[in-house]
């Protein structure tokens, strides 16, 4: 471990391909740092990958799940598994029940102290691996190394998505081409998990390839984002939820770059980023399946998106986006569920998802449209609409965050009168079957660590309280 002096010569910004990341001889930069700004050198990182790879190469299990709180230990284990020729599994949730549910997808588990209850018989704690056997690291054949991630969208059951490291490498190279000059020699701080594709790429693999030191631990609270003042330039890898919460806290901090992904960013979050972090974030739109698709800096909610330069795009008969992308498969068009308008100069406008269109009483309803109409009302800041079953029929339920005006109105009268007034206003826009029958007012719409709404959590709000 090196001390905190970080001179620019040691931070040479030469890009190293993912395939050659751990077999270089003359790299002298720092890989990461802890909360005390104690740094880990590239040589130490290389040694640790050789040590863990030496252990894994002698294990018969093929599919290894990684569950780590410490991003450095995660990075070492990730590269060690790749060099050992194992299939890497990244569960998005380390809770015991969730891990047990996913255990059919892996043979063994490598972890740090974040795991307390083991979901499988074969597991190993990172700190207990000795350096009795050290592996010699050759360049990786990225196309042969498989990785499984899991979706974390609105459905209850995580869906496994398999990729190769070559696809990740293609995306990392594109990220560096787009933003490498802007990031320069910044240090990387993050609020998002490396267990999902956004955090895996932006907070771990891209910094490793580009020679930028990253923090071993996450910022968890808005106060940390606003108060942390290191000596060096810094970049923030953030979620929409935390950016929006900056409004509730005093302070100002300067970041070289801010990124946001994992869910939709409200315009208020973009405004707060500019006011408190010195610039509007670069939003990255994509998914576990597609990787990055496009990006923008949001000036207004209708600000256009720009495709990554390597992508080709077209619309299918339903006006949904199809992609030809080196992050997915350069030989086949990939269909998405996103309604889009394609414009000139590689730009596009997102208009919602086809899988958020449902049928109630034979009428097609867009849940996105209902949410939009709710948020047009001065009484409501945020809305999440879900389909529900009530008395053997389908209805809509709406979880809403009231504005100050809405809170004052509901305090002046009864909740029942407020809901009636709200439904009356919605009739100007929506057919009767499209007006929510059940409402829950909350201080915050529940989100997971990636800033995404979970169907189960929204449903639970209605299960916990009787109308």
Automatic annotation (TrEMBL):
Residues 369-452 form the AMP-binding enzyme C-terminal domain. It comes from Aliivibrio finisterrensis. This is Acyl-CoA synthetase. Gene3D superfamilies: 3.30.300.30, N-terminal domain of ligase-like. Residues 30-295 form the AMP-dependent synthetase/ligase domain. InterPro entries: AMP-bd_C (IPR025110), AMP-bd_C_sf (IPR045851), AMP-dep_synth/lig_dom (IPR000873), ANL_N_sf (IPR042099).
